[in-house]
Amino acid sequence: MTTLRTTDLRRGALITAVLALLCSAFLVLPANADPAPYDDCPAATFCLYSGADGTGERRDFTDRQALQGYDAAWDGTSLSAKNNTALWACVYGAPGYGGLLETVKPGNKDAYAPGAVRAHKLVPTRALCFTGYERCPDNRVCTFTEPNGRGPITVHLPSTDPATKNYGNSYGTEAAPRSAWNRTQKHVCFYPEAAFTGSWADPADPSGRKRFGAYVVLRGDSTTVPAPFAGTFRSHELVNGTADCQ
User: Fold this and answer.
1) What is the pLDDT of residues 12-30, one digit of tens each?
2) Which of 102, 149, 179, 223 has the fewest CB atoms nearer than 10 Å to its CB?
């Protein structure tokens, strides 16, 4: 009888020890942690989020995608971003690479106020975020509403004006350019009047007698238009030599 009791006691102790071991194992099992913010952004991808800190709906862009503007559902609605590419992300506050600019280093994240994200591009160097000339196609004159080729672009297809016979473009009510790129084989003469004429007063001459003629952009050149010409162009023509400007 004594032997049986001892065996039962030993078995009971062993079972108790095993149960205790199992319980402790269950106690130390790690809980399924929520993913860290932005961890869902795939590799080689620029991710925009509708919520702060990488939350909400996500929209993905490859390193080959650039958008001068978003559809209505995403225009100005992004509140955070993760740049998971090897390129710099340039984030703009207005369509056409215009408005305020924020840059996101490769691998970094960023946060935005409502309405701050309306366009983006991905570029090899940060310096390229500050220009938008690359949008201009070959053999065209392109004008931009902001300096450095930023803002909405107009790609001009020249024609001969039936009244003046000038070969170029008159802008009408279009916003006056603040920068331009001449990718043609001709020189471009810009004028302050829609009929390919006009001149500018020299602000340094108080008498007002000294005036500037056409503002010329040579073939292949790009420029941010300086004062007193900035915001005043109403037409331009293409010429073989600068002496042909009006």
Assistant:
1) 554 555 445 444 444 444 5
2) 102
Give the integer Cα–Cα distance in Å for 46 and 61: 5
Reported as a single tens digit per residue, the pLDDT across 55-82 is: 999 999 998 899 999 999 999 999 999 9
Residue position matching structure tokens 């703009």: 92
Look at strands 141-144 and 153-156 and give their pairing: antiparallel
| Angle (nearest 5°) at CA 104 between 67 and 100 | 65
Give yes or no for a contact between 63 and 122, defined as CB atoms under 8 angstroms apart: yes
- For residues 130 and 150, what is the distance between their CA atoms, to the nearest angstrom? 8
The secondary structure of 209-220 as a DSSP string is --EE--EEE-TT
* Cis peptide leading into residue 228 (ω within 30°): yes
| Partners of 61 in beta bridges | 46
What the chain holds in terms of domains, given with CATH numbers, is 45-130 (2.60.20.10), 133-244 (2.60.20.10)
* CA–CA separation, 207 and 173 (whole Å): 31
Sheet with 141-144: strands ordered across: 153-156, 141-144, 179-182, 222-224
User: Would you state the structure tokens that stand for residue 144, as one six-digit string?
Assistant: 């931009």
Going by the DSSP 8-state scheme, the letter that residue 126 receives in this structure is: G
